[in-house]
Amino acid sequence: MSAAQVVHDVTVGDYTDPATVFAFAERCDVVTFDHEHVPPALLTDLQSRGVLVRPGPEALVHAQDKVVMRTRLAAHGIPVPTFEVVATPEALVAFADRARSAKGASTGWPVIAKTSRGGYDGKGVWKIDDPSTAEEPFTNLAPGVQILAEEYIPFTRELSALVARSSSGQAVAYPVSESVQADGICVETTTPAPGLTEEQATACQRMALEIARDLEVTGILAVELMQRADGTVVVNELAMRPHNTGHWSIDGAVTSQFENHLRAVLDLPLGDPAARAPWTVMRNVLGGTRTDLVEGLRHVLARDPGLKVQLYGKDVVPGRKVGHVTAVGDDLDEVRRRARHGASELRSES
After folding, report:
1. Cα 49 to the chain's mean position, in Å?
2. Rounded to the nearest 5°, which phi and psi values hold at 51?
3. What integer is the mean pLDDT of 229-255?
4. pTM, whole model, 2 decimals?
5. Is 267 found in the same domain as 126?
6. Where does the pLDDT of residue 106 fall: very low under 50, low under 70, confident under 90, or very high at 90 and above?
7. How many Å apart are CA 170 and CA 164, to the nearest integer?
């Protein structure tokens, strides 16, 4: 309910309840969302009632279902990990054994197992090191959810290619960011990604724009990439909404991802995605020992008035994303130090 703290016209209800959603949509010119978990059938029903849904369910399913996404991207020549839908632990082990046989005795294990739907922030993802843990992904599996087996990619870092596309086809690409994950949660982004050549950055942007065009995405599309030591990348995840790896753009870009998402779904001309400074570092504030974030804000801004802080209005829970700190400047090491220090001070009272 963070938005309800700053928006005067709010509807509170279950986003999976058709009657609630239909009543809400009657008051809207266009419907969009900030997560991918809205049932596709409900969105299709909205469209049949004449409601503009952007992105539409035909596009959104590729962010909702990893099996659909992997299959579609692979068919269009987009680099993705080798994958297979597996119905049993035995099938998962067989997938790894085949990978070992094909690539050499030392590369079949580990493998990655993912739920096809519902995973986020590291949930629904397992690194399976050997057959003894192959049953874990199948425990308490929800009805209709599949397990996707993937080759383990020994990546050196994760990148995020963020683009915006309007319903009329105009599209813009943000600078490619490097993201740092801890326990499946993004903790920091650096924009532009350090050490990424202009050729590599352009290739990532073109890939994201190609995916957005092929899937007919309207709004923001975040393409999460894994980069290998040789510089090549594979697609890990898709998100069709303003994304945590793009939060740097609120204070670091000419036009934020949030504004461009709204421009896109309203089919307005898109804004300039360029960065305002040579370096932008966004550090997430995860719930810690400090519960009064506003009081902490006083200390952070007094110490470094140049920092930009966004608090989400959420209850502080250990490990939960409750805000972020953004620093910009000409010296990457200094910018990174400032962002990290501000986030650390907001997290802890000590």
Report:
1. 30
2. -85, 135
3. 97
4. 0.93
5. no
6. very low
7. 8
